[in-house]
Amino acid sequence: MELLGYIMALIIGISLGLIGGGGSILAVPVLAYLFALDEKVATAYSLFVVGASALVGGLRQHKSGNVDWRTALVFGIPAIIGVWLIRHFVVPALPDVLFTLGQFEFTRRMGMFGLFSILMVLAAYSMLSGKSREGGTGDVHYNYPLILAEGLVVGAITGFVGAGGGFLIIPALVVLANLEIKMAIGTSLIIIAFKSLLGFLLGDALSMSIDWTFLTLFTVIAIIGIFLGVYIGKFVDGKRLKKGFGYFIIVMAVFIFIMEFIVKG
Question: Which of 69, 164, 177, 237 has its CA 20 to 30 A from that of 188?
């Protein structure tokens, strides 16, 4: 199972390199089911993997001139605060059983993985949608109250489920900052990188014991996969792969829901 887990780490990276996003959403189920980590550890480790992978992608976008660093800072600070608040205060304080209905116990694991499966379906929908993304004019301006609220909410979701939420951030950058779509995609990767890494380092790394050897190995394999994916992408159709990957994510979301609410419930 562990060998399969490391192979999946490589596939996560390859998918990121091929389609530019979405692959890191598989980190939580891989860590939870193939490495048998509990929900706190799986979502924490996923934050690190997501953050490191997004940083590699974001720096590649920076080289192409597709990162607006000022916008990344404006959006990133409230998002980092949102992740940190959830990982440092909320998750450690959650009881094992959130509430009971008769004989049914709704556990912390059900809450975290249930929300995660919903997020997977939304991410898959953004991949499968036939609509081409439209960006702003590039005349950057900021709606600060909405940016603060959006950053806190997306950061909180990221902190709770351990996923980057790029499909939420990119439209927000377009609508709330008027960024062009290429710039929004590149900037979103930098935001995801810093909110995920700092949320992990300032939250989980201070409150739980981290297996750095395992986490570093898993992350390095995923990053190697990114470069493999970029190379493979020169020879294959990324759009068709993106649709196939979107359907796969839906299957995984259903699997997680069945495992947590039917098999274990």
Answer: 237
| Pairwise CA distance, residues 87 & 103, whole Å | 30
Q: Which residues contact 180 (CB under 8 A, 6 or more apart)?
A: 135, 136, 137, 138
DSSP tag of 97: E
Structure tokens at 18: 């091929």
* Contact status, residue 48 vs residue 29, Cβ threshold 8 Å: no
Predicted TM-score (pTM) of the model is 0.90
CA 93 vs CA 120, 196, 204, 218: distances in Å:
25, 20, 13, 28
Tokens 């890494």 found at: 197
**Across-strand partners of 100?**
105
70-106 CB burial, b ≥16 within 10 A, e <16: ebbebbbbbbbbbbbbbbbeebeebeeeeeeeeeeee
Distances (CA, A) of 92 to 19, 86, 112: 34, 9, 13
Give the Cα separation of 10 and 251 in Å (integer): 20
